[in-house]
């Protein structure tokens, strides 16, 4: 962003790519959108509720209260039931600098405009399925692995805060110490992995609690 804050992150995870759009904040920036090369993507309203949710079958558009406004199915998807609902083009602005355009499963673009310059990221993908039973399973991480990653983030934050306390002995400065940006980014990625992994809600809550402690 013109402020210097990180706007878009592209992460490679084995054979998948993940594109993350962040808020224009220096610390603890919230996620505004996540696009995955496996056909699953989500955009969020400013209040944090899901705005657009996409999978390899189709997608849905929701308002800020969580009410479904419209749904669609991709033309190459054999839905288990119900008629085929085509996509009407979608254009949304996540913030004043980042917009999303959805014209098709492989025609999804994130555009970034600032200071008279523009960058575009094609985050669409073409995933064909013949039946719902043949949908490829999402990448899985074990509960122990997710908890280990969460505790690693927490330990690194504690070490960073300890270093800050040694640098600024005054108690008045301790609450002003913020974690490094790379730890915040890793924490957001772990929380997202929890949402895409087949683990219990109890484990997801525990991972969030460990990271946010």
Automatic annotation (TrEMBL):
It holds the Pfam family FAM194. It comes from the Eukaryota. This is ERIP6 protein. Residues 1-177 form the FAM194 C-terminal domain. InterPro entries: FAM194_C.
